[in-house]
Amino acid sequence: FVFPTASKRRAHVHSLLQSAIAQVGPENVVLGGLSQGCAAALIALLTWEGGEQPPIAAGFGMCGWLPFRKQMEDTIVAVATAEVSVDDMSGGGGGGGGDDDLFEATGEAGQDDAPTQAIAFLKEELEMLAQSSSMAVQRVPLFLGHGVEDEKVPVELGREAVSCLKRLGVNTEWREYDGLGHWYSGAMLSDLVNSLRIMTSWEHTQDE
Length: 208
What we know:
Elements: H1 6-24, E1 30-34, H2 36-46, E2 58-62, H3 69-91, H4 99-109, H5 114-125, E3 142-147, H6 155-167, E4 172-177, H7 186-200
Parallel strand pairs: 1-2, 2-3, 3-4
Helix pairs in contact: 1-2, 3-4, 3-5, 3-6
């Protein structure tokens, strides 16, 4: 799936988030969307640089996918492989340059963990000027739902998105809905509302 306007959408969503947070506080803001709206929301959350505190209370997505998923997963695998190689070098008793060589080998690979480097790749791909190592998204719970019969965005893309998000350290709840195509259903909305109540600890009111 091509997402050519990802950078512009990310900037626009970040602007909306900043405005909403300023007005009602991060604990009262939830970000989500359907299809491309889901993709845009996930990108915005992954690249958020709002500091160490969670930027919003929760996020959600319906019938969507995660742009740049494969590249981020490839980055995670590459970093993990490099870390294993460094461990092998540090554990080996063979000759070589000893501590000096080990220091050089761990220099680049040990700077950030795999999820952080994967997010750094995403920010660079989107040409973000600010490049902090903030991983605030790891403290934002997500709900993702997908119709098994989705003819526009196959459910497998949703499954792959969840797998990648979990590898990035994001707390993600996943639900699939038999017989549902590229849309939401009453069951999905009910699950979403129930999940948001748990994620946000928002109180149930009699007017709902």
